[in-house]
Predict the 3D structure of the following.
Amino acid sequence: MHVPHPRGPLTEELFGALRSGSDDFYAVLPVATSATGEDAALALWALHELHYRGFDDVPADLEWDPQLIRLRGVLERDLEARLRARFTPPEGLSFVDDVLGWIDDQDGASLAQHVHRDADRDQVVELLRVRSLYHLKESDPVTWVVPRLGVQAKAALVELQYDEYGTGDPNRLHHHLYAEGMRASGLEPSYADHLHLAPLEVLEQNNTLSLFGLHRRLRGAALGHLAAFEATSSLPSRRMAQGLERLGFPDEMVAYYTEHVEADAVHEQLAVRTICAALLEEEPELEEDLWFGAFTCLDLEDRFARAMLARWGVVTDDRDGRDDQEEVA
Ligand SMILES: [Fe+2]
Ligand SMILES: [Fe+2]
């Protein structure tokens, strides 16, 4: 993968500097402090990518360049402040006992529901492409959290991750299943090819996962996010699988979603009742961050779903987006 196309002044400056072979990023920092929107989000996505697979045209040792880390910090602080500003901790609820019911009560817009019943093939292809930014590195951001946990939470998280990584079989590894599904659908199984389609909301979903994973102090938010992610996957995965079948997508693409119907029904219990429960036993002061992570997961997905549905001309009602989605004639 090569450094992507810029989307504004910061990414112009940063990506040019990254490709130049220089290790002087001093001029980029002032541009970062005023960057917003897709420009800031894409810059942060690229800086995080240096910690995953990196870019063919950027030297690997820039991963730990102090000026780039400082730049990353500026963008991450802005992202975290915006995420926290949207969050109000629920009162009088216990995370372990109440989060699944609380999640059921949230009314987010649903892309899976649209794919199930109404979406056309082009919309689903677009969705598969923008989702590839996450699904082709599925579970990797959570792996950063493992060394930051006490023994009980660590053992339980690794049990979940072991499933995500295919229980020792590379052909069962979830991000590989997604790649196989893309390949069978005639899509390039590399997120570099689809990044330019990703709206702000998808960049921020991915940036948030990396932010939570890469900062030890945010381990509670990372696990709260994981719990909400797993708890909102099983039913939508069934709907996605049925929608893909309705539109004649190949078995490999359907298989990625059917794999998640049962797996994530198990994972939601493991995430809440074992991983988060163990974390709270060892570090009860992290309960509010568990809620922050769970809220943020649902909030980001709702914003992403609304952005895609708006792009496709599907109207969602603000109070009850999931039930009242309607196709505009
Ligand atoms: Fe998975
Ligand atoms: Fe899962």
